[in-house]
Amino acid sequence: MENSGGIQASLSGRYATALFELARESNSLPKVEASLATVRQALGESAEFKALTASPLVARAAAAAAVAGVAKSLKLDSITAKFLGVLAENRRLGQLSAVISAFGALAAAHRGEVTAQVTSAHPLTADQVAALKAQLRARIGRDVSVDLSVDPSLLGGLVVKIGSQMIDSSIKTRLNSLANAMKG
I need a surface site. Which of 21, 78, 115, 184 has the fewest CB within 10 A? Predict the structure, then answer.
């Protein structure tokens, strides 16, 4: 398995690599990816779950028990559930979002895809995501998986980052450019 040095060098990258290898060896990549997508969604929707992952005040045993309960209620696969327990025991739940992103990049690379980090002002519909993937595939010449996030401060438009390339079509950037042009 070829990994980029950047992913392996970070703490979250090492955890993501370990989870990826475990999932690959047990032929569970699709299940783990689906479970991690569920966890990412839960982090975005549940303030309590996000607080649990971010708080250094929660004891290891309490965090592990809470994560086990969350895993059961979210119906996560056993590998992901155990992995969350390991993160809790090692006091690394604060790295969960970064681990999920790094895992997504590893899984996409494994499938021969490029990962695009897409930030929009509002959540994108399934049709918009499909159209965006098609446009990015035409531009790059490879399949593209998207890592979506929402930043209301953009006001509108998108910011797409693929590797070192960034495409910023946000209204916020356009307004800042216009303001700078009017000053000079």
Answer: 184
81-124 pLDDT per residue, tens: 999 999 999 999 999 999 998 998 899 889 888 888 899 999 99
Which CATH number is 5-106's, of 1.10.520.20, 1.10.443.10, 1.10.10.10, 2.160.10.10? Answer: 1.10.520.20
Q: How far is CA 63 from CA 43, 71, 132, in A?
A: 15, 12, 38
49 pLDDT higher than 60: yes
CB 106 within 8 A of CB 22: no
Q: Helix axis angle, 47-54 relative to 29-45, nearest 10°? A: 100
Q: With 0.90 as the threshold, say if the pTM is over it.
A: no
**For residue 150, what are its two tokens?**
């929402």
